[in-house]
Amino acid sequence: MATYVMSDIHGEYEKYLLMLEKIQFKSDDTLFILGDVVDRGARPVDVLKDMMKRPNVYPLMGNHDLLAIDILHKLNVEITEENYSDHLSTETMTELIDWLKDGGSPTLAQFRELSVADRRDVLDYMEEFSLCEAVDVNDKTYVMVHAGLGNFRKGKKLREYTLQELLMDRHDPEKDYFEDDDIYVITGHTPTVLICGKPEIYQSHHNIFIDCGACMGGRLACLCLDTMEEFYI
C-alpha cells in the first residue's frame, strides 16, 4: 500500500493514465488529487469519469473545478421564457466568457456530449470534492490543499478559511506555517517553474509544491509520500 499525491491534471487524460501506469497504481493504494482536474487540456471529463470509478482516489477542490461547477449548473437547465433572465443574465454570460477564455472550452465541449444522467453524476461527484485533507505517513503529517493557507495564523480552523484563501491565494514557499517539524503542507496551483525555474517538485520550509505545469508544456508530477519518490510524465 502506498499513498500518492498529484495535482493540476487540467484535462491531460493521456498523461494521467500514463502516470497511473508508471506508479503501478493498485486498488490498495491511495491517491490524492489536489484540484484543477478540469479545463485547458483536451479531455477533462474523461479524467473525471476515470476518477469516479476509483474509490481510492480522493479529489480536492481547485479554483477551476469550482468555477466549472458553478457555470455548468447554470447551463445544465432547460431554458424557457420564464427562467431566461435568471439563467442567461449578463452576469452569467460574462462569467461564461471569462471561463472559456481561461481554458473552460474543453470542459464545456465534453460535458455537452454526456447524457443528462451522466451530467448529473459528474456534477454530483465534483461537488463532493473536499477543500483540505490531512494524512499521516511515516510519522509525518501532510496537510493538502489546492492553493495554500491564505491569511494563515496559528490556531485558525479550516472553517474559518474562505474559498479565496484555500483555492486562489498562493502559498509562500519561504514560510514555515507550522512549528512542528513533522507537519508539511502540499499544494498545487502555482506552477513550480514560477518558483524554481524548473518543472519539477519543489520543497522548502516544510512546503511541497507539485504543480509542474502539465498543461503548459511542463510535466505531470506525482509524489509518493511513503518513499518521497518523484514521478514525472
TrEMBL record:
GO BP: RNA decapping
GO cellular component: cytoplasm
Listed InterPro entries: Ap4A_hydrolase, Calcineurin-like_PHP, Metallo-depent_PP-like
Pfam families per UniProt: Metallophos
Ranges where the Calcineurin-like phosphoesterase domain occurs: 3-191
GO MF assignments: bis(5'-nucleosyl)-tetraphosphatase (symmetrical) activity; phosphatase activity
Full protein name: Ser/Thr phosphatase family protein
